[in-house]
Amino acid sequence: MADIPHDASASAPPAELGEMELYHPRSWWTKYVFSQDAKVIAIQYAVTAFGIGFVALVLSWLIRLQLGFPGTFNFISPEAYYQFITMHGMIMVVYLLTALFLGGFGNYLIPLMVGARDMVFPYANMLSYWIYLVAVLVLVASFFVPGGPTGAGWTLYPPQAIMSNTPGQQGGIILMLVSLALFIIGFTMGGLNYTVTVLQARTRGMTLMRMPLTVWGIFVATVMALLAFPALFVAAVMMLFDKLLGTSFFMPTLVEFGQQLSYGGGSPILFQHLFWFFGHPEVYIVALPAFGIVSDLIATHARRNIFGYRMMVWAIVIIGALSFIVWAHHMYVSGMNPYFGFFFATTTLIIAVPTAIKVYNWVLTLWRGDIHFTTPMLFALGFIVTFVNGGLSGLFLGNVVIDVPLSDTMFVVAHFHMVMGVAPIMVIFGAIYHWYPKVTGRMLSEGLGKFHFWVTFVGAYLIFFPMHYVGLTGAPRRYFETTDIAVVPDSAMALNAFISVMAFIVGFAQLVFIFNLVWSLKNGKHAGGNPWRATSLEWQTPKTPPEHGNWGKELPVVYRWAYDYSVPGAPEDFIAQNQPAVAGREAST
Amino acid sequence: MVVAWVMVAVVVGSIAFHLLSPWWFPPLASNWGYIDDTTILTFWITGIVFAAVVLFMAYCLFRFRHRDGNTARYEPENKRLETWLVTLTAAGVIAMLTPGLFVWAQFVSVPEDAMEIEVIGQQWLWNYRLPGEDGQLGRADNRFVNFDNPLGIDPEDPAGQDDYMIIGGELVLPVDAPVRFGLRSVDVLHNFYVPEIRAKMDMIPGSVTYFWATLTQEGSYEILCAELCGTGHSYMRGGFRAVTQDEYDQWLGTQMTFAEFAS
Amino acid sequence: MIAILAFLTVVALLVLWWISRQGLMVKPWLETDSVATLGGADQPRLPPAQIGLGIFLAVVGSLFALLISAYVLRAQLGDWRGFPLPGIVWANSLPLLAASLALEWARVRARHGDIMLAQAGVIGGMGAAAVFIAGQLWAWTILTANGYAITSGPAGSFFYLMTAAHGLHVIGGIVALARPIAKIRRADDVAAIRLSIDLAATYWLFMLLVWVVLLLVLSGWAAAFLALCGRIIAGSG
Ligand code: HEM
Ligand SMILES: [Cu+2]
Ligand SMILES: [Cu+2]
Predict the structure, then answer these.
(1) Distance in angstroms (rounded) separating the CA atoms of residues B249 and B252
(2) What's the structural domain count of chain B?
(3) Each residue of A526-566: pLDDT tens digit?
(4) Span B115-128, average pLDDT
(5) DSSP letter (8 states) at residue A330
(6) Which atom of ligand 1 is nearest to the CA of A64?
(7) Do the bridges between strand B125-130 and strand B115-122 make them parallel or antiparallel, or are there none, so unpaired?
(8) What are the residue ranges spanned by the domains of chain A?
(9) Ligand 1 touching residue A503 (CB < 6 A)
(10) A295: Cα separation from own chain's centroid
(11) What is the pLDDT of residues B8-43, one digit of tens each?
(12) Domain A40-252+262-588: top CATH class
């Protein structure tokens, strides 16, 4: 086999196309604060998301204090409790996970992975972040208005959400709705960037089927978000009208304190349809980027091509499309026409097939691999276990009859935490350990990383696996206390206390992670350009961290797919995407 | 290496936990045993899949861990294997879905002879309306709700006059006869949930939702609200007793009708 | 949710058509290029702004489809009463149509390089759109004065909500029209001016389309038409 020239890019044809005008920062302010560089914006997104995410983590401790040790902590009133769960849920789903995957990872990785200099609309990209920041600040502000933040549950179901017996019905709910609307506007600006960059700014040779799965996952998730978020937007605006202008979109004739309210003629179910038309795709908006990223982590650290790349791509696209016709599986017991149950149970279980294929392919990538147990790999493995677990409990809830007894119990809480809480967060951690060296030029400490992994993985499993069984006994979710429920035995309360203790342990492990992030910035090992010996383009930048414009003088040219690991006959166990083939092909099996 | 063993431990531990767990559905008190059966079937199928996937993964981690001289095999895809896996998965999904849909078909078809009753939720209290001599309930709407008519029964409708009203008290129902639970709310969403019955449904102001069940076990149960309905949500409980038909008739005689209540 | 599903079906078909030309069936691991095979330039690509606008219109389309879905879901409940559309709302279609035509004309002129005429078209479009907005505000005033305020019932609330959403998009469009004008004033590159007018004209065409659909839905014609189709199908089958 002919050897492959290592400075291949020197002999590659120059990229005449795909170059665009690059914006040039003129001052410190425009370089680091009002920056239009996607990499800086990515970090801004990530830091903000982690900041507000930390609030949600602290809230989860307060929730667990109350559930594990009811009656012990008098400062947690029912009002406060409902405010905690609402803000915890909303922050985790929207302001942390969505913002981090799309705004954070999307911004950093898309241009680098497709070989672009930046996003195509850098100015809109910058605005996207600043609007997101305002949305977060509005949300935070709701903690400080009279009445506090809304306690309507993260689903914000009317009529309850805007009525007197719900905490935060004065200012909190208004700020929540405004903040969501802002978030959506900001996201749309970013989302246009992510999609158009993938479509139009790929470098020469980067066909769609040569893109790393990370890009595929983020791309499809963004398309879904662009089409699904308007549903939440419409719902939020309509509810604001009901609250502020006295319309009755969602408000039927009803009675409060023995008095008829002036509302009438609205439909609460309408809100639920709109909410879940956004809400279900939202689950996959969080999951698909995680699917993509974890595929790349596994391939890189098992030194093996991702198994069944084409199936993986198709599965992402099919899951994305199907997830628009399953929303009402969240409404089986909502009182909607029960005959819808047949349709939605069927579509829901059909999605299980492409999802299962993805799981098989991850595991089959390990088969006959050369597995390095690095921290990113450990987190990827943790993801597989928790995702499989959460996905399987989803088959219970998707199958309409089983959902009837289980809906609105702690079983549901356990399920969605496993599948869209723990699993994607495992990927986020893995991804950070994986790409931190590219972002900062230094490695994170592996020792602290392993500690972080073990405590988080084992701890989170011990929190959420037993929680399913609390739900099986019949303990409803969103209960301030479950002590005196006839069907919930005392032993389940002991289990609850155990879960709470684990939640604290897991929470504190995150402090170790944050310490690692900060400490390694100055003290981490120098990483070099490509510490994991990975194939995809972001590892082939001339400088690490990549400078503004990413690629120096010339854009890279792509000659192969992103998974040429352990190619027989090749001198090394990986071939970067920008290395041309010399004598035909290296391998064909 | 350690990871491989931890994965095995996760599988063994989870299965052991499941088998030893004292935490399970409360004893069944209605005809919805099929729901339990479907659940158990699903536990079996998903349990096997979970164990198979994670154990296979543990094996891979052990067998293909990095050692000097070990190289990964280059194999982009394997059509046959993937086709097999898709087929098997589809079969498993069908095995779970089919019984589910059959049971659902029963769930949505209320027996003709079901006794109609109504549960009316209000922050944070359970009220009921039971048919009087005419065996049917009169019309009702939140428009009619006022101090003398807390359940919003249409005063014009003669069928409503003999309806029995129970405000905040205990609900008593006969066993062995199908009951159609009509569900209403005068304010926000609630959800009528008796864990032993299995069936539950949201209650929505402005519409009447429903489910049906036949009670099979005499006894006292607790009604929980299972849809967040404001600050008092977790305290919205009610008492519920399933008794023989005779005891039911006797109890009903001691309740107040709408006509009596209004006068 | 019929409207949004129908809309998404159209989007999905477009995506499918596009995706079918992207070689999603190739086996990328068999397609390694060498320097020689990758010679030559790439296919010319559409300007990003045009793709961006296309996607943005899909988002806006989904917003309106959702509003219509909500409207239809609500209208199906028993106690629905329609809302009288005043004549002025119908008449308002004319300025919107004029704005769209003016921009189409500007598009053609710009393509021929008559920048000054194109500018006249853009300004004309702005004027017509401003008339539309004024007309809409007037319609609202009349309705409110006649007792059809925003709280007068579900149909009324939907009317105000939907026309407000459309009106805001039109106002946004007017503001965006300042861009081609600024470009012309700065005597930018002709291609840039042409692109910017092109984008504007497409956007306005879309706003006209949304308006027509909204009118059909709010007036009940769409429902009547669908009912008729249903009867024809039922009759023939
Ligand atoms: C250490 C981590 C976490 C712990 C201990 C935790 C714990 C909890 C608890 C106890 C509840 C309330 C259950 C109830 O009474 O109904 C809850 C609700 C919720 N959590 Fe978490 N959580 C964690 C992380 C996450 C993450 C990462 C997500 C992201 C998906 C998330 C999303 C939610 C949502 C959506 C709710 C529902 C809120 C509602 O009912 O309105 N949580 N969490
Ligand atoms: Cu869902
Ligand atoms: Cu409740």
Answers:
(1) 5
(2) 2
(3) 988 899 999 999 999 998 889 888 888 888 999 999 999 99
(4) 93
(5) G
(6) 10
(7) antiparallel
(8) 40-252+262-588
(9) yes
(10) 15
(11) 999 999 999 999 999 999 999 999 999 999 999 999
(12) mainly alpha
